[in-house]
Design brief:
The protein has 149 residues and is an all-beta fold. It contains no helices and 13 strands. The protein has strands spanning 2-8, 11-21, 24-29, 32-37, 55-57, 81-84, 89-94, 101-102, 107-113, 116-121, 126-131, 138-139, 144-148. It has a five-stranded antiparallel beta sheet with strand order 1-2-3-4-5, with no helix packed on it. A four-stranded antiparallel beta sheet has the order 6-13-11-8, with no helix packed on it. A four-stranded antiparallel beta sheet has the order 10-9-7-12, with no helix packed on it.
Length: 149
Amino acid sequence: MKKFSFEINGGNYEVNVISNEGGFAQVEVNGTPYNVKINGIEGSVPVAAAPVAQPAPVAAPAPAPVAAPAQPAAPVGKGSKSIKAPLPGSVLKVNIEAGTSFKEGDVLCVMESMKMENNITAENSGTVTKVCAPAGTAVLQDEVLFEYE
């Protein structure tokens, strides 16, 4: 599987190419699967090596971010773990900062998605090493919100 990162209209998209055969590809964009027909463009990469061209959605595409999207998180360091967004939305409130300890069940932040507020709770205990999505940030599903140890 090949992984690519794209910036389109200010939004960052992680693309995994699952298969690529006969001018068609199966890709996953930020966790959403798509079937893609690859069109050759003169002077571009050969069709067999082209990662993605104009995706044809299998499922409804993710809504456009309301605020500026979060910057892609740096690779998680050794010994660090991450807490990811369970759904796309906007971070309304962050209840914890770097260096702060938390316990299982603590509400780490509040996200708004589809006009509903959702508490993001800790699944285990730890100490936050980095807040990757401060309040006001639009995030996509599986985007890193916090890094912790």
